[in-house]
Amino acid sequence: MNAHPLSALLAPRSVVVLTGPEGQRTAEAEQLLAQLSAQPFQGPCAILDAHVRGSLADLAQSRADLAILALPESEWLSGVELASRIGCRAALIVGSGVSADRAVALQRLARREGLLLAGPNGSGLMTPRLGLNASLMGPLVPAGGLAVLSQSGSLTAALLDGTRTSGVGFSTVVALGPHPGVDLAALLLYLAVDPHTHSIVVHLEGLTQARPFMSALRLAAHAKPVVVLKTGRREEGRSVAQTHSQALAGHDDVFDAALRRAGAVRVNASAELLAVAKCLGVLGRGSRPVQKGLALVSNGGGPAVLAADWAERVGLAVTAVQDLSRGGTPGAYTAAVLAAQSRADTDAVLVLHAPLLDSPGADCAQALLDLKPELSKPVLACWMGEGVAAEARTRLGAAGIPCFRTPEAAVGALAHVAAYHRHQHLLQQTPSPLSPLPPPDLEGARLLIDTALAQRRSVLSEVESKALLAAFRIPVTGTLRARSAHDAMLIATQLGFPVALKIDSDSLPHKTEVNGVMLDLRDARAVHAGYDRLLEQVRRALPGVVDLGVTVQPMAGKSRARELHVGLIHEPSFGPVVVFGAGGTQVEWIRDCAMELPPLNRFLARQLMMRTRTAVTLDAWRGAPAVQWEALEALLLRVSEMACELPQLREMDINPVLADEHGVVAVDARIVLAAEAPATVTPSYAHLAIRPYPAHLAHPLALRDGRICQVRPIQPDDAERLQALVASLSPESRYNRFAATLTELPPRLLAQFTLIDYEREMALLALYREAPDQPERIAAVARYTSQPDGESAEFSLLVADGFAGQGLGSRMMESLFVAAREQGLQRLDGLVLKANTAMLRLVRGLGFSIEPCSEEPDFRLVRKPL
After folding, report:
1. 3-state class of 216 per DSSP?
2. H-helix or E-strand containing 642?
3. Which residues contact 50 (CB under 8 A, 6 or more apart)?
4. What three-state secondary structure class fits 87?
5. Rounded to an integer, what distance in angstroms lies between the CA atom of residue 515 and that of residue 196?
6. Which sequence ranges form a coiled-coil region, renumbered to this chain (predicted)?
7. Smallest Cα–Cα separation from 128: which of 78, 163, 85?
8. Which CATH number fits domain 285-427: 3.40.640.10, 3.40.50.970, 3.40.50.261, 1.10.10.10?
């Protein structure tokens, strides 16, 4: 409805520079002024001496969207006040080394003054299409469609310097430092809807609040390709881990898992960053998905071998190699590329050219350019060498055929394109916090946790841990605690032999490390003697431990079962993470695990397992039949449910899990709780990095004529239903909703409407069936989209023509009010065509105010406080 608040910062219509008098400016101020004057800004740009006194009316003549503070640090507070007094909407401070307290004080003042403040620790920003270079990162870069967000000014400057002759153009460049006033999440949300940005590059050094970042990243990555470079792979904290899961997982592994779920692509070197982003800009959204099949066309064996070797390393399968050898003529390239494109097992083609004397590089590049209209699958090129090859790379790149200098770089870029398509599929998964499996005993699970925390215990015993798993219907081996050797013998007799004895102590994270396990005890005498021997050997290994007990459990009896490890960790920024991998006594030595952020569905659970090396052993393996994959998936779904519904969980090991063709069973378990965590019966899921599908908003809705609709939040697979609804509308209804004469939703808009981030948007559907055997159709859609202020949202409503007069519109809006209040929104705003009298009558009856809209005379602005 209104201009995005960040547009005053990133796309200002006017700029004022607050600085000191000539001869008294800081070195940074002089640099900043030089950069601003090196090229014309497309708008008014005034230089104002911040020390000149005058009336407010005189100062107001310098009013601008953006105030740039080229002042010494001691004058920043007064500069922020001055920018506010003259009516600026945003301010930028370029600097470094400012403490957190100082930065927060500046930002607090700016908020109080109603001013958006970027800084004070960044290196500035560039908006090339406007000629704006308010930075210390070198000359203004060319305009284009690539946006760069970075937490390092020096890395950004080096990155930009290396692209001066590459033909890459930029829409926005922002270099943030520590404690920025405008964070990455807000910038990502702006770029997600910025029509001038086609791809986004993000450089991260650290992250403190994962949920807003993940929400913004998911929205941005759904709209356009996002490439992330994360520096800093330190993994502090493993030494104090109380479970194998926590010891196996590092922060960097969790970050990888988060990026996959967000639909973004990670690169590991700055040299890859822009090349991958440019490649994704061409071969990403809208192109045929790249899986694994790669065909090679080359005029020499050496480049093809290099490409094939690198493809194997990055997980791509080479399906064909066409070595033109010394016949690398333009015609030979044309025929070979067409043949490779026609292969059913091939997803993409890499065309390589080495600078051989009898193979004209320029003509061969032209042949590939002439062939472009006939290409049905992604094609990349590698023209090795300089001179003619460099010119060919430029021409091919400009025509939309990504071209690289080395085979390794080309194959690596294609691997990232394949990863992008895989991650986009993960992005479309919208699991609920509870799976479709039979419901767990949530009340019993919460009572067990509350009891332990009330007793000031953060580690559950094995018996308690297994009871918690059983509450979520996870199969466990029965476990009882024995108080004496005699008790152990009696318990074993009742359970049935053979049995296992295990040491039970909160002080021992890993029983096997202190010889705390005895297996396969086959009679009462062995159990009686084993009880005392077990305690003795543990006390010998750890003399200071006093809280020792012994548990008795039956042997699982799965001789051909695979030993697996399933667990949960809590990463400070991202919250709970599900872990899966090889299990047993050597779990940390094997170090084979994969991670995924909850909530999970069956697809995500299967993908999680397939990312481990041990996945190959789960099918028929060395004479043992394949395990029951569905049981493993169900186990992971149960652990995901625990992560979602029990925010007190901090670490969990289920190790080993025995899996075979009959199912799974948890043999041992250890669970660590937050020392102080509030109990909750209805969790808000604020502890999760990804908000689950809000299934609790689903409910039936009765219409006046007796028909029943089912209301639920929208899902990605509702795209076809939504398109059918739009097609069924009358021209008047379509115009009233979209203020356009469209007959169907464009693919990008359709995807934007159906794959939403429930943290920032909500779309409720009313679904009905014309007959029990007919597919569901959409009767109405009520939607809101949060505004950048976080307090208000813009709403819309669409009701199918056949449901007019049924009270459906008002009932859907009331359901939307509930969802908006739950999200903490305080007001709903909307624009309604003044000719749409039915909609105006409906919102008036719901308590909306109706006002003229000065910016859009044909519309009315409607508002309702919540």
Report:
1. helix
2. helix 629-645
3. 18, 19, 20, 71, 75, 78, 79, 82
4. coil
5. 64
6. none
7. 163
8. 3.40.50.261
What are the φ and ψ backbone dihedral angles of 366, each rounded to 5 degrees? -65, -35
Place of tokens 């400070």: 572
Q: CA 440: distance to chain centroid?
A: 28
How far apart, in whole angstroms, are the C-alpha atoms of residue 743 and residue 679?
51
How much of the chain is in helix, strand and coil states, percent to nearest 5? 40, 25, 35
* 8 Å CB contact between 324 and 298: yes
pLDDT digits (tens, 9 = 90+) for 591-602: 788 999 999 999
Contacts of 303 (CB under 8 A, 6+ apart): 352, 353, 354, 382, 384, 407
pLDDT at 128 > cutoff 90: yes
Residue 294's DSSP bridge partners are 318, 348
pLDDT in tens, 650-674: 999 999 999 999 999 999 999 999 8
CA–CA dist 409, 392 (Å, integer):
16
Q: Residue 830, SS3? A: strand
Calculate Rg over the CA atoms of the chain. 31
Is-contact 495 553, C-beta < 8 A? yes
CB proximity list for 473: less than 8 A, separation 6 or greater: 437, 438, 440, 638
DSSP E strands: which ranges in 7-54? 15-19, 45-49
Question: Quick check: do 285-427 and 695-865 share a fold?
Answer: no
Please list, residue by residue across 244-272, b when 16 or more beta carbons sit within 10 angstroms of its beta carbon and e when fewer do. Answer: bbbbbbbbebbbebbbbbbbbbbbeebeb
CATH of 442-552 given 3.20.20.140, 3.30.1490.20, 3.40.50.300, 3.30.300.350: 3.30.1490.20
Q: Which of 529, 542, 534, 507 is nearest to 518 (CA)?
A: 534
The one-letter code for the residue type at 754 is T
- Assigned CATH for 695-865: 3.40.630.30
pTM, full prediction: 0.87
Tell me what pLDDT residue 842 has: 94
Contact present, 699 and 764 (Cβ < 8 Å)? no
- Alpha-carbon distances, residue 39 vs 128, 134, 141 (angstroms): 10, 11, 11
770, with CB counted inside 10 A (0-12, 13-18, 19+), is exposed
**Structural domain boundaries in the chain:** 285-427, 442-552, 695-865
At 548, give phi and psi (nearest 5°).
-100, 135
| Residues 819, 825, 828, 829, Cα dihedral to 10° | -140
Residues in the chain: 866
Q: What is the DSSP string of 322-364?
A: EE-GGG--HHHHHHHHHHHHT-TT-SEEEEEE---TTS-HHHH
Show the tokens assigned to 40.
Answer: 């014309």
Q: What is the pLDDT of residues 132-167, one digit of tens each?
A: 999 999 999 999 999 999 998 888 998 888 776 667
- Beta bridge pairs of residue 863: 829, 849
User: Are 660 and 627 in contact, with CB atoms under 8 Å apart?
Assistant: yes
- Is 20 exposed, middle or buried (CB count within 10 Å of its CB: 0-12, 13-18, 19+)? middle
